[in-house]
Amino acid sequence: MLERPSRESRARPQRRRLLVRVLLAVLLLTLAFLLGVAVARTIDEQVEPGGVVTNVRTLEPLPQERPARTVTVTVTVTSP
Hints:
mainly alpha, 1 helix, elongated
């Protein structure tokens, strides 16, 4: 007659399946994380159409005329 497999021989394939499932889950989670990082960087680096453009230039001061009169203001402060 046929003999039933022992518990030890059945336990190894189950452990191996569990290990494969755990490794597959870790691999899928890692891939999902990396895909999320790639999408976030792509969205962050996109150029917005009609976006703001900054131009920097140095302005030369205009010549100034002499003032018509000069006023002197004197302020006196007394301590309480």
